[in-house]
Amino acid sequence: MLVHSSITELEQLGYYERYCRIISPTSLAQIKELIGPGLMAVELALDHYRACDALDLTDEQIHAAGLRAGEKIGDALLVASAQVSASAEGAVWSVIGAFYRMSRRIYEGGSAQYVKLGPKSLLIEYKANPLFSVRYYRVAYAGFMRRTFGSVGLKIKDFTLSSYRREHAEIEVRMSWL
Question: Is the pLDDT of residue 31 over 60?
Answer without folding.
Answer: yes
